[in-house]
Write a structure and sequence with these properties.
The protein is built from one helix and 20 strands. It has 295 residues and is mainly β. The strands form five sheets. It has a five-stranded mixed sheet, with no helix packed on it. A hairpin with a 5-residue loop joins strand 15 and strand 16.
Length: 295
């Protein structure tokens, strides 16, 4: 990923192994998949050479853990990253979030509890860091919360749940303290509004997937709810003024839509399936009933 100032590129890679390279050259580099997982470290390289010769990458993290996700801070001075003990599939319940200062290489831990923490995202003003956190201990990868962490310190506060207590995120409202927002498996952090004032996310509501917004006072409101079906793959444009997504239902194939975050209705932006002939499908309807517990 290129730094916001355009001067450097950050990436993850395994540490070069002379023994492994020699084995590859001698055609004896067979291995059992997953037997000895190699960890990925975080590296930074100049985007263009400062003098003669090629720029050389610099390893930012000297610890032996595996770096998974990372993001540059808006001022290009820091990189927040998710890390776990090793690169095996079962290592995710022990993931944590840390931050490294690019100039000095100093690392500070931001989130390291018995829960799994990951997928850090800076707000555009650099005041907040959003990341995902599971219950403690982690039991299921989809049972997560969104945590908004003030980078200069502050106590967390709970943001009211959505209808089904489960978002995925597109943006956020300026907060002076971290906020927690429950999220389910299909949700994901997509980004912040350009002024760091709104956090957008998608969340389940019954049989639909709805686009929500969280305000600074903790109020959650629906930005867009499809009349039927679901929205998928939501993403903000570069200026965080529009959101794009795929919309479909049990009787209508998916198409791409775009919608202004300032208001209005979605506009179809594709015609991938409009020429498909109508199909005789069975009807789909929601069935509601009251359970014995009154819900």
């Amino acid at each position: 990923r290129i730094s916001p100032d355009g001067n450097r590129i950050a990436f993850t890679a395994v540490e070069p192994s002379p023994a492994a390279e020699q084995a590859r050259k001698e055609k004896r580099d067979w291995h059992v998949v997953g037997e000895h997982p190699r960890n990925h470290s975080l590296w930074v390289i100049a985007a263009s050479p400062a003098g003669a010769g090629k720029p050389q990458p610099r390893r930012m993290v000297q610890a032996s853990y595996d770096v998974v996700n990372f993001e540059w801070s808006p001022d290009s001075r820091f990189i927040a990253f998710e890390h776990q003990p090793d690169s095996s599939e079962d290592s995710w319940p022990h993931s944590d979030v840390s931050e490294v200062e690019v100039a000095s290489g100093a690392v500070r831990v931001l989130a390291a509890t018995g829960a799994a923490e990951g997928e850090p995202h800076y707000s555009p003003d650099g005041h907040l860091l959003a990341y995902l956190r599971t219950p403690n201990p982690a039991r299921w990868a989809g049972e997560e919360q969104i945590v908004l962490l003030p980078r200069q310190g502050g106590a967390p506060r709970i943001v009211p749940d959505t209808f089904d207590t489960g978002p995925s995120i597109p943006g956020l409202e300026a907060l002076s303290s971290p906020a927690l927002l429950p999220r389910k498996a299909m949700g994901e952090i997509l980004g912040w509004s350009a002024d760091s004032s709104r956090l957008l996310f998608t969340g389940e509501k019954g049989t639909r997937f709805v686009l929500y917004s969280v305000a600074a006072d903790g109020g959650t409101r629906a930005v867009y709810a499809p009349p039927e079906g679901v929205v998928r793959g939501a993403a903000l444009n570069t200026g965080a003024t529009y959101v794009g997504f795929s919309r479909e239902s049990s009787g209508v194939p998916p198409e791409a839509f775009v919608m202004s975050l300032s208001g209005g209705s979605p506009t179809r932006a594709s015609a991938a399936n409009t020429s498909l002939p109508p199909l005789s499908l069975g009807g789909t309807r929601r069935i509601r009933w009251q359970s014995t517990d009154g819900l």
